[in-house]
Write a structure and sequence with these properties.
Layout lengths: L1 E5 L5 H4 L6 E3 L8 E4 L15 E4 L9 H6 L3 E3 L6 H16 L2 H10 L6 H8 L12 E5 L3 H12 L3 E5 L5 H6 L5 E2 L3 H7 L2 E4 L13 H6 L4 E5 L8 H10 L2 E6 L4 H4 L4 E3 L8 H21 L20 E8 L4 H11 L4 E9 L2 E8 L5 H8 L4 E6 L2
Parallel strand pairs: 1-2, 1-3, 3-4, 4-5, 6-7, 6-9, 7-8, 9-10, 10-11, 11-12
Antiparallel strand pairs: 13-15, 13-16, 14-15
Helix pairs in contact: 3-6
The structure holds nicotinamide-adenine-dinucleotide.
Length: 387
């Protein structure tokens, strides 16, 4: 019986997919796998029994990735599962910023008791008028799951779309419309676009990527959209750019006290992925990834271990070795198996940064002593008998 603990509510259409011999537990301490959305795991102790963490969503800064890797805990996320939900809100954000729709709605509410509201509206509406997005230039920084969807959708609105992503994946490149202009220097986007939207992960290298220097390069009256992470934008610099009129509107999905006090900001309470469809997609994907790892040792969409897929084990046994990415690990692992007379029928070794993963199909079930010896190799973080 495998036990799964949910740190946040996870859609039943996902958890229902666990095999019959799995059960959900309220007790974190007995969990083989943990499913999480936004709950912070930074202060949690990683217990020996925990094998995997499934983040139902894309961002993983609520999870201590290195500490998990060191403890032999594979962390998965669900890239792309909420991309359509975020894309739809980005498009809505762009439209909200193009006319003062929010102000106009406020005006209607404020004048709700006026019998002559229809006539008054005709007089007052010019204060809320704006422009159309068709024919305008949109710059998309980061062309992953979300950025590519936003870029493609904007081409259908008649926008001229510039896309910048020096690390674009092959899959994302395939998904991108041919009408999106490939930009090789982000400054071109800062200098030329009427709307700029960021869809990059938050990292040391991307923190405050929208700052005074970049804002100064932008066209007067530009609209900046941030549905990725709040600290990608320097709030003080943005407040100054809004106050001077350099930026007409800042649309952000990340409320904080500074942005909440910016008059020209359109602030949304982190609704990007808050759709039933996104939550369902994330739950299904997280459960499928976790089940494939617990049942078969396969790793798909991990953020701290390499991808590895050997399908369903047809051999007598399968073991998984999570280890540091240092020389002579395979030699030592296969040496111990050979010494113990265990024949390997298939194996894969993959590495990613500091960590590596070796999955071995064996012709005999290894003895407890063999597993103990593998665990004793310096640099081995966990050995798991998958089958
Ligand atoms: N508002 C929300 O509710 C919500 C929901 C999901 C995701 N997000 C955020 O959106 C971000 C993007 O999500 P995604 O699913 O598209 O991720 P993704 O990993 O599919 O795409 C990120 C892209 O950014 C690119 N990139 C990295 N550094 C870059 C740089 N310096 N310049 C240009 N491109 C760079 C990568 O190559 C990748 O293609 C996530 O990291 C997350 O923070 C927000």
């Amino acid at each position: 019986m495998k036990k799964i603990h949910c740190l946040n509510p996870i859609a039943a259409c996902g958890t229902d997919l666990f095999p019959a011999d799995y059960e959900l537990t309220d007790n974190f301490a007995e969990a083989d796998g943990v499913l999480v959305r936004s709950a912070s795991m930074h202060e949690m102790e990683l217990l020996e029994g925990l094998l995997a963490v499934g983040r139902a969503g894309a961002g993983v800064n609520n999870i201590p990735l290195d500490a998990c890797a060191e403890a032999g805990v594979v962390v998965f996320n669900t890239p792309g599962a909420n991309a359509n939900g975020v894309k739809e809100l980005v498009i809505a954000g762009m439209l909200l910023a193009s006319r003062d729709i929010v102000g106009g709605i406020g005006w209607c509410k404020a004048n709700a008791e006026d019998e002559g509201i229809a006539k008054a509206a005709e007089k007052s509406k010019k204060a809320f008028a704006g422009c159309e997005v068709k024919g305008k230039k949109l710059g998309v920084i980061g062309l992953g799951a979300i950025g590519a969807e936003v870029a493609n959708a904007a081409t259908h609105l008649g926008m001229e779309v510039y896309g910048y992503d020096p690390f674009i994946s092959v899959n994302a490149a395939w998904r991108l419309s041919r009408n999106v202009k490939h930009i090789t220097n982000a400054d071109t986007i800062f200098q030329e676009c009427d709307y700029i939207t960021v869809h990059v992960p938050l990292m040391d290298s991307t923190k405050h990527m929208i700052n005074k220097e970049k804002l100064d390069m932008m066209k007067d009256g530009v609209v900046v959209l941030n549905f990725a992470r709040d600290t990608l934008v320097n709030d003080d610099d943005m407040a100054a750019a809004l106050a001077s009129g350099k930026v007409a509107r800042y649309v952000s999905d990340f409320p904080n006290p500074k942005v909440a006090h910016m008059d020209k900001a359109i602030l949304i309470p982190h609704l990007g992925a808050s759709t039933k469809e996104s939550e369902d997609n994330c739950a299904v994907m997280a459960v499928q990834e976790m089940t494939d790892y617990l049942e078969n040792g396969n790793i798909r969409n991990s953020v701290n271990y390499p991808a590895c897929d050997m399908g369903v084990c047809q051999a007598e046994s399968r073991i998984a070795v999570l280890h540091l990415n240092i020389p002579n690990m395979i030699g030592q692992i296969t040496g111990i198996l050979a010494e113990q007379g265990v024949n390997i029928s298939d194996m894969t070794n993959k590495s990613r940064d500091k960590y590596a993963y070796t999955l071995l199909d064996l012709e005999h079930r290894p003895e407890a002593m063999t597993i103990q010896k593998l665990n004793g190799i310096k640099g081995v973080l966990r050995v798991r008998v998958v089958k």
